[in-house]
């Protein structure tokens, strides 16, 4: 793999046997009917899954050079389906419509978008994903904690999230500039009226220094509608978005759903 290709796709290949083992161990506990690995690269995780007995699964890889490498090096007996595609553009309808587990050492630049696509898919069941440490902290942050925001709320409303392990820079080749963290996700049913909840949450955190009232005013809700909702939820008019729990955002969206 050339340095130019690595730079092109932002790839950092996982080389730590310890971390590979911890990811596979976690995935084995959360196993689902179908299995998909996103961005396998040279197949360090893929080969370990095959050694553990996994077969008849899919990998989705953007880099044609890596696709060729995998086709040449994965054992035919494992019957791995190698798709060449950008996962964010990949049509998930091409996968079996059964409970599915996703695993990936996610590319840092697209990690949040990939997570959202996975959590939104009706057949998502579990996932084990590696993120940049700071982004993982945002995903798991609680109200009032550093980094708590739309990513935290929208992730936690759709999955139970747990920390698997921390990953240092030296676990990759080439080493990235930041540490990483592996998280596990287990599906929970998203609340009804999800598009509205998503809009309310994103609007609330779009202007982080403003109160929730002012942020929602900028999103187009009337002062009367917002104050009525906050009063109904027994929240002060000075409350800030980072003080609400994910479930309070669900209730807020419900209160706002009658009109604007």
In short:
The protein is α/β, with parallel strands linked by helices and 260 residues long. It contains 11 helices and 9 strands. It has 2 domains: 3-187, Rossmann fold (3-Layer(aba) Sandwich), CATH 3.40.50; 194-256, Helicase, Ruva Protein, domain 3 (Orthogonal Bundle).
Characterise the protein shown here:
The chain is α/β, with parallel strands linked by helices. The protein has two domains: 3-187, Vaccinia Virus protein VP39 (Rossmann fold); 194-256, rRNA adenine dimethylase, C-terminal domain (Helicase, Ruva Protein, domain 3, Orthogonal Bundle), CATH 1.10.8.100. Helices cover 40% and strands 19% of the residues. The protein contains eleven helices and nine strands. The chain has helices at 3-9, 17-29, 44-51, 64-73, 111-120, 133-140, 150-156, 194-206, 212-218, 223-232, 246-256, and strands at 13-14, 34-38, 58-61, 81-84, 100-105, 124-132, 159-167, 172-173, 180-187. The strands form two sheets. Strands 4-3-2-5-6-9-7 form a seven-stranded mixed β-sheet. Strand 3, helix 4 and strand 4 (81-84) form a beta-alpha-beta unit. Helix 2 (17-29) crosses helix 3 (44-51) and helix 8 (194-206) packs across helix 9. The protein is elongated and about 65 Å long. It starts with a helix and ends with a helix. The model is unreliable at 1-7 (pLDDT under 50).
Order of helices and strands: HEHEHEHEEHEHHEEEHHHH
State the helicity in percent bands. Answer: 40-55%
Please tally the β strands and state the result.
9
pLDDT averaged residue by residue = 94
Largest β sheet strand count, sense and barrel closure: 7 strands, mixed
